[in-house]
Amino acid sequence: MDMKTTVQQRKKSWLCIFPGCKEPVKTHYNCYSHVWDAHLRHLAASPIYGGEKGQVYKKLTHRLEAKKQCELYMTEVNNYTDIEQQRSIARARIGNPQLSLLINSLDSEITNTVSNEVINTVINQNNLVTFPLQDLINSSLNKSLSLPSQSTLYQNSSNPLSFQEQSSPVIHTYECGSNEIEDNQLKSVLQHDDFIRIIQINENLKRLHVAGEILAENGFLQRSDARVKEHIEPLKGCLDKILKLTGKSFNYTGKEEKNLGFIAQEVQEKLQENEDEKRKVIGTFAIEEESFHFSMGPAIITFSLAVLLSTLSGLVIFILPKLPGVWFYCWGITCALWFSTFQNKNELKYTMQKRKLILYWNKENTLFTYVLLFIGLLTVGMSIVMGKSIIILCLVSLCILFILGTLAFWFNTKYKLSFNIIISVLVLFFLGVVVIIGVSFLIQPDYTCSINDNRSGYSLTINLNEKIPKQVISQLPWNCWSSSFEFSDKLPQGIYSVTKGSNTAPYIEGIVRTNFPTFTTNVYIKCVDVTRFYCGAITFKTCSSRTTEDDCIRNGCDWFSETGVCQ
């Protein structure tokens, strides 16, 4: 096995093939660390290695021996083919390397003479009994010898489970068989996974290995043996905090599979002092963390709305020709919907391939929707409330919204304030702004319309064939983007109104060439076809061209009988 470390080998292409291990592929260094820390480190605590506690891989000063042992359980794989299939092939190819490792480890430790009745030979430093690795594996798969006691273990009083011992003088490999399971099935399991083994170190000492772990030694569970422990005291109150946790059922976003477990934030909150960095020595855990990304909702919904608003965006100019603020808002919403759809395009691919809709609604979707609705409210307010007061209202509203958002984030982080409370406060604030804008629209506090600075009404006497003086309306507010006159009665022929935008005050002028009955009309000015202001009343009359007393008086003029003139 070529174990050279290069820059190119930092990619994840190394796999642990220790019996029973299911770890995914790792980098070269991480695979060394995993095999040593998770599987082989316990050997350093055995009498074979002097009984000293093993160090984790990253703290080893001399790693050469550890690397040699780890390499027996490592193989380089191709990430583009089935990983588990490669793992099984590698295990079958190398057999049981730990078996050879333990036999070689006994070379410097076993010096006593073992009874001829058990192994019929003497093991010492000069005469070591060794067995080829493949012979041991083949014998474990093809032979079945009885235990010294030739006993049979019964499970549930119905299914006898027999153990038989192989006659190897040093290593005993056991096969377990059930009356209901065929022998070839059991042998296949042992061949690929090497799940259970018993190793005889000397005449009186046997060691049980299960899934690569030393589980028992000479009748005692090694990790629970009181002979290797001291200061043994009963635990008190150790479950008090654990009992505070509550199991939850949940679905991961975009998945239908039901899961059971604990919520990480709840565990972190209630068991902060129990976080242990040492747990990382057994490998890297895949933890799903909530990440922020722009989303206005499920992709299928945002896509449908984007298509609909794209159509409306082209028609809004004709539907609301005098509300440019609404145009820009509609176009902005359309762009945001398309961007959100692009961000979640994988959901659309899944829907098309699996014919299943992905529907959900998260907190960020609610917040994005709220922000867009709030901006839309301010846009409408700036279109229907004339004057500078709406600017002040928008600035104050945005400042308050920013303060509320900051406080909500702080309370949620420090005191875990419920999201429902936060959104309820924001909705109440939204409704408050709606009420203020509605009242402002009705009273229009910033603009008062008048004609020639007169709102009470007046009479305008017109001389035929003479241009009347301009009847000027007070200056329009800044956001009256499109203005027009409105009259309760039609103006006399020859008189017209002029509006040139918010920078020029509207006015009325013209030339009358024929008499008309005296009448009064109310004058209104409309902004963006939504807001209408009353400017005053004008009474139009012609007097100088009237020749009879009755006609003069009937039209509200003064008749001078001495001169026969109507004024």
Automatic annotation (TrEMBL):
Peptidase S74 domain sequence ranges: 224-357
Protein name: Peptidase S74 domain-containing protein
Stretches that traverse the bilayer: 299-320, 326-344, 365-384, 390-411, 418-443
InterPro entries, A to Z: MRF-like, S74_ICA
PANTHER family: PEPTIDASE S74 DOMAIN-CONTAINING PROTEIN, PTHR13029
Keywords: Membrane, Transmembrane, Transmembrane helix
Domain of life of the organism encoding this protein: Eukaryota
Organism: Entamoeba histolytica HM-3:IMSS
Keyword Chloroplast recorded: no
